[in-house]
């Protein structure tokens, strides 16, 4: 865990449990944790793999090159029509995250 990223999680008001659950799942994949663009970013060999974001209506993980993933589960969302490569998985509660934890790890 990265102390700079701890601050991000400590200051989350709405999605703390969800964000911590996502963090745990991602760190189990042995990625390096950094803070980029003001959000937790997880890298492999200095390449960005996945970010954790929070919004008013949901929290999400964003795969920076998600368009290249084989989305066998059909869970990746194109954030906006202008976003070409990145893909999101959105969550509104911890149970949703726990249910697909193994899929998240497989996608990572």
Structure description:
The longest helix is centred in the first third of the chain and has 12 residues, at 16-27. The chain is 31% helix and 27% strand. The protein has a five-stranded antiparallel sheet with strand order 1-2-3-4-5. 25% of the residues are buried. The protein has four helices and five strands, in the order ααβββββαα. The chain has one domain (3-107): Aspartate Aminotransferase, domain 1 (Alpha-Beta Complex), CATH 3.90.1150.200. The two termini are 18 Å apart. The protein is α+β, with helices and mostly antiparallel strands. It has helices spanning 3-10, 16-27, 94-99, 101-107; strands spanning 32-36, 39-44, 47-54, 59-63, 87-91. It holds the Pfam family DUF1801. Residues 15-108 form the YdhG-like domain. InterPro entries: YdhG-like.
Q: How would you concisely characterize the structure shown here?
A:
This protein is an alpha+beta fold and 108 residues long. The protein has helices at residues 3-10, 16-27, 94-99, 101-107; strands at residues 32-36, 39-44, 47-54, 59-63, 87-91.
Task: Please describe the topology of this protein.
Layout (H helix, E strand, L loop, with lengths): L2 H8 L5 H12 L4 E5 L2 E6 L2 E8 L4 E5 L23 E5 L2 H6 L1 H7 L1
Antiparallel strand pairs: 1-2, 2-3, 3-4, 4-5
């Amino acid at each position: 865990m990265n102390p700079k990223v701890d601050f991000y999680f400590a200051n989350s008001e709405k999605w703390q449990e969800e964000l911590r659950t996502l963090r745990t799942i991602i760190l189990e994949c042995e990625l390096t944790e950094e803070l980029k663009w003001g959000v937790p970013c997880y890298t492999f060999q200095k390449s960005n793999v996945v970010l954790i974001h929070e919004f008013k209506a949901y929290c999400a993980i964003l795969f920076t090159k998600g368009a290249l993933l084989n989305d066998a589960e059909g869970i990746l969302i194109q954030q906006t029509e202008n976003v070409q490569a990145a893909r999101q998985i959105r969550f509104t509660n911890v149970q949703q995250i726990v249910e697909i934890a193994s899929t998240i790890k497989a996608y990572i």
